[in-house]
Amino acid sequence: MFQHPGDSNISKFQVSEFILMGFPGIHTWQHWLSLPLALLYLLALTANILILIIINQEATLHQPMYHFLGILAVVDMGLATTIMPKILAILWFSAKAISLPECFAQMYVIHCFVGMESGIFVCMAIDRYVAICKPLHYPAIITESFVVKATVLMALRNTLTTIPVPVLAAQRHYCSQNQIEHCLCSNLAVTSLSCDDRTINSIYQLLLAWTLMGSDVALIFLSYVLILHSVLKLNSAEAASKALSTCTSHLILILFFYTVVIVISITHNATMTLPLVPVLLNVLHNVIPPALNPMVYALKNKELREGLYKLVKLNIKGNERGRGSLR
Q: Are 182 and 189 in contact (CB under 8 A)?
């Protein structure tokens, strides 16, 4: 499938599968990491499903801001589910083998979901900018149609621009080593095993990061500079505090998301004595935000907290009624 027609030696030794070794340097006891990772994954699924249920059941939450939060919850669950089942299979059952098509598919989906999460953060930043800086125009600008169009645009952007990542990786020749010192099919980890020049892969990875993530960070930064400028002009300290509080949770999650992305890029490109660090960061970056996002929003958002209380009360009352009927 990936053989070079003019090179029989390379084609002769073309590998048919990769072996995901897990966390480098701690192979003998890495299975102990399965418990915290499994708990994080379970927390991510549970918390995001709760967010979706609350937004669906509460009519007051049928607003663009919460629609974006619901989309973020779906993206988070997709991102975590793309990597965690395979990681847990490696740690629990030593199921380390993965076929080349499966590996390239995982690589593609990870890039799509990470880019989608970044795009949704941009949409949420724009939503907060209009709500705080142009409150009178908010109902006319941030409509249901805007949410749909922005989501479709971000989905198309990320699904199309990330296609070259697995395609370029699949065109490399893997003729000798097939052991990946990673828990997932990272583009850099996979292409580092190739026997031919992978410069084009590195260039496109860098270009993708700067064009997608770079433009997203710039738009988010601009939005919050304008928000801060608008808030500082408010005469009421209470109004300023309320405006900033609505953005705090968003900023916490954005800072965590992009800081880890930057650190992963630096540690991957640097010569490191601890190869475990970028691998661990890469895995945690794909599972901690999905677990963290709904909790931060639930703690900082009054409407979500009230919706959660109502949901818990309904479940408690339902259980009590069920017990009463059994009696």
A: yes
Sheet of 17-20: strand order equals 97-99, 17-20, 179-180
| Spatial separation of the C-alpha atoms in residues 41 and 286, rounded to whole Å | 10
Instruction: For residue 250, count CB atoms less than 10 angstroms from its CB and return exposed for 0-12, middle for 13-18, buried for 19 or more.
Output: buried
pLDDT (tens digit per residue) in 212-264: 989 999 999 999 989 888 888 877 777 667 667 767 777 888 888 888 887 77
Global pTM reads 0.88
In the numeric block, the tokens 């990673």 are attached to 182
74 touches 55 (CB < 8 A): no
Question: Do the bridges between strand 97-99 and strand 17-20 make them parallel or antiparallel, or are there none, so unpaired?
Answer: antiparallel
Most distant CA pair in the chain: distance in Å?
79
CA distance 219 to 50: 30
Q: What's the CA angle centered on 50, arms 49 and 54, to 5 degrees?
A: 120
> Residue ranges of the alpha helices (H) in 100-143?
100-133, 138-141
Place of tokens 């779906």: 74
pLDDT digits (tens, 9 = 90+) for 145-156: 999 999 999 999
CA end-to-end span of the chain: 66
Side chain identity at residue 27, one-letter code? H
Listing DSSP states for 181-243 in one string gives SSSS--HHHHHTT-SS--HHHHHHHHHHIIIIIHHHHHHHHHHHHHHHHHHHT-S-HHHHHHH
Count how many residues are written for the chain. Answer: 327
